[in-house]
Design a protein that fits this description.
This protein is of the alpha/beta class. The protein has helices at residues 3-19, 52-61, 83-100, 117-132, 151-164, and strands spanning 36-40, 46-51, 65-70, 77-81, 106-112, 136-142, 169-178, 181-188. The chain folds into two domains: 3-97, Ubiquitin-like (UB roll); 106-193, Translation Initiation Factor IF3 (2-Layer Sandwich). The termini are far apart.
C-alpha cells in the first residue's frame, strides 16, 4: 500500500469515528469548509495562513487533526492537535468549573397573619435549616379576605420572622407586596460573619 493510501485510510477512518461523537464538537478535518485558514500548531505556535488543503496536509503529516477553533475570525483559525485529547481536556475543564459552581436555591416558607406560635416556631426551624444548607429563604404572608385592610399584621409577622433569623441570615430584599402576597427574601450569612 502506498504512503498516500495509508494516510487516506487512517484519516478517513479517524474522521468518521470522531465526527459521530457529541453534537457540541467542533468541525474537524474534512468538515471545515473555509477556503483559507490561519493554522496554529500543537504547541500554540503560529504556523501561518494556508489554503485549506495545505492546512489539512500539514495536520496529516504531523499525525494530528485540523480543528476549527474560531470560525468567525477572518480567516478562520484552526489548530493542528489530537482531537480526542483536545475533547478530553475540554470536558475535564468543564467538569472542574461545574464543581466550583455553587447553586443557591430559594426555599419558600408560608406564613399567615394569624399564625399560631408553635407553627411560627416550626417555620423558623425550617428556615434556619434551609439557611444552614446555604439556600435563600423566601417568607410569604398571604392575605385572605378582609386581611388586606390590615397590612400592618403582615408587616409584624414578617418583622418577627426576620428578627428570629437574625443569627442565621440577613434580609436581602425588603418586604414587598404583590397582589395578596407580601414576601421577604433572607440570604444566609457568609461564613466569616457567623
Amino acid at each position: 500500500m502506498c504512503g498516500f493510501c495509508t494516510h487516506f485510510f487512517y484519516f478517513s477512518w479517524r474522521y468518521k469515528a470522531i465526527s459521530t461523537n457529541n453534537t457540541k464538537d467542533l468541525p474537524i478535518n474534512e468538515e471545515i469548509k473555509a477556503a483559507e485558514v490561519r493554522v496554529i500548531g500543537a504547541e500554540n505556535e503560529q504556523v501561518g495562513i494556508m489554503k485549506i488543503d495545505d492546512a489539512r496536509n500539514y495536520a496529516y503529516n504531523h499525525g494530528v487533526d485540523l480543528v476549527l477553533i474560531v470560525p468567525n475570525a477572518t480567516p478562520p483559525v484552526c489548530r493542528a492537535i489530537d482531537y480526542g485529547k483536545f475533547c478530553f481536556e475540554r470536558d475535564k475543564r468543564e467538569k472542574e468549573a461545574k464543581k466550583k459552581q455553587v447553586i443557591v436555591k430559594v426555599k419558600e416558607v408560608q406564613l399567615s397573619c394569624r399564625i399560631e406560635q408553635h407553627d411560627f416556631e416550626t417555620r423558623i426551624n425550617h428556615a434556619k435549616r434551609f439557611l444552614a444548607e446555604g439556600n435563600k429563604v423566601k417568607a410569604v404572608v398571604r392575605f385572605k379576605g378582609r386581611e388586606m385592610s390590615h397590612m400592618e399584621l403582615g408587616h409584624d409577622v414578617i418583622g418577627k420572622f426576620c428578627d428570629a433569623l437574625a443569627g442565621s441570615g440577613s434580609v436581602e430584599k425588603k418586604p414587598s407586596l404583590e397582589g395578596r402576597f407580601m414576601h421577604v427574601i433572607i440570604a444566609p450569612l457568609k461564613p466569616d460573619k457567623k
